[in-house]
Amino acid sequence: xxxxxxxxxxxxxxxxxxxxxxxxxxxxxxxxxxxxxxxxxxxxxxxxxxxxxxxxxxxxxxxxxxxxxxxxxxxxxxxx
Length: 80
Hints:
Layout: H1 3-18, H2 39-53, H3 59-64, H4 68-78
Helix pairs in contact: 1-2, 1-4
């Protein structure tokens, strides 16, 4: 899957999870950039992303992701 499509779909997921249509994620977006992105919302977000892209992240991947760019790269490699 091309990275542009990944970001378009990630934007939709982020907007749905955080109920904020103004969100526009970039490769450098982190939890510090989105007001309601706390540890509980992180779980909800990861589940929503995995469902949207039909991928499964390992616990190691989830805990080591530093920004949306790392998430998008994993998705682009695995998603069909």
